[in-house]
Amino acid sequence: MHDIVSVVDLVKRYGSALALDHFNMEIERGEVFGLLGPNGSGKTTAINCILQLLTYDRGEIRLFGQPMTQTSYDLKRRIGVVPQNVAVFEELTVRENIDYFCGLYVSDSASRKKLVREAIEFVGLEDYEKAVPKKLSGGLLRRLNIACGIAHKPELVFFDEPTVAVDPQSRASILDGIKQMNADGSTIVYTSHYMEEVEEICTRIMIMDKGRTLACGTNEELKQLVAAGEKIIIEADVPEAALLRIRSLPHVLTATYDDGSLSITCENGEHNVADVLDELTKARIRPGRIWAEPPTLNDVFLEITGRELRD
Questions:
Q1: In angstroms, rounded to a whole number, what is the distance separating the alpha carbons of residues 40 and 55?
Q2: Taking the CB of residue 207, how many other CB atoms lie within 10 A of it?
């Protein structure tokens, strides 16, 4: 595979503030690449620089193996952008909006008509193509926003939080559509504040903060970087002496007991649950229900950045 996006030592300043601090990013063709970071981390600035919507102080940006500049119109035709804020014309219908945005890239009317029809069907707006945006629900409006950004069949698509404030059904539809676009050959760059979405669809994930890359890898690779492993919750009556012994087990990081519930966090290990249950057996404690779950992407994010994603 070859890099479809290459960003090397990108620096962007706003006055004395350093928004991007020698930022680097490489995305291979065919990936669904998740870009995560707290608000103010530099995600949007990085994307806007890549798209040449912002000037930058230094660095190199290459798309499809070629230098990306403000006048690289041949490259820009191969890119789609779905912004976080819905960007459509209120006075135009669904079909007219999609036709307008598709027309920015495709001048042939016959080709454009076919692409517009395919985009409407792709996002499931066949019953609304004559409606104006103000008549659409939030979820349908998001689908229209997506159709406007992808109607020209771009090879590279940037999705900036496309599921904000939509209902679960629309969210599922949008995610299924993104996965289908990727299966059809599009490379996706995806930002979101919903960690479960990123875990579901992204083949590789970057976490950034303060304009720099903190970590990059697959979901599983990122989880191996942090100390926090699986979480174990056991319903049982646990006396203080047994709790102390559980806390002393080799892989246990924390163990707390409250109102009949034993909560344990462990380092990554193969026998954590078995070790805890052995200790309970030795203490003649019969457990009730048991839950064990691996670390989540949110656990990784918190440990790496030290703050919540929605800061």
A1: 18
A2: 23
Phi and psi based region of residue 261 (left: phi greater than 0; alpha: psi -120 to 50; beta: remaining):
beta
Q: Are 38 and 298 within 8 A, CB to CB?
A: no
Q: Please, which residues bridge with residue 60 across strands? A: 8
Q: Which domains does the chain show, CATH number per domain?
A: 3-223 (3.40.50.300), 231-294 (3.30.70)
Q: Could you tell me which of 152, 32, 157, 151 has the C-alpha nearest to residue 82?
A: 157
Residues 283-299: pLDDT tens digits?
A: 999 999 999 988 888 88
**Other beta carbons within 10 Å of 306:** 10
User: Which runs of consecutive H residues, i.e. helices, occur in 156-294?
Assistant: 168-183, 195-201, 219-223, 240-247, 272-282
* Model confidence band, residue 307 (pLDDT cutoffs 50, 70, 90): low
What's the rounded Cα separation, in Å, for the pair 219 and 149? 27
Give the model confidence (pLDDT) of 210-245 as tens digits: 999 999 999 989 988 876 678 899 999 999 999 999
Cα(211)–Cα(75) distance, integer angstroms: 25
* 200 phi, psi to nearest 5 deg: -75, -40
pLDDT digits (tens, 9 = 90+) for 60-70: 999 999 999 99
Nearest to 146 by CA among 169, 167, 121: 121
The alpha-carbon radius of gyration of the chain (Å, integer) is 24
What is the model's pTM? Answer: 0.85
Tell me, rounded to whole angstroms, the distance of Cα 246 from its chain centroid: 36
Determine contact, residues 80/149, Cβ cutoff 8 Å: yes
pLDDT in tens, 10-56: 999 999 999 999 999 999 999 999 999 998 899 999 999 999 999 99
- Could you tell me the two tokens for 175? 């995610």
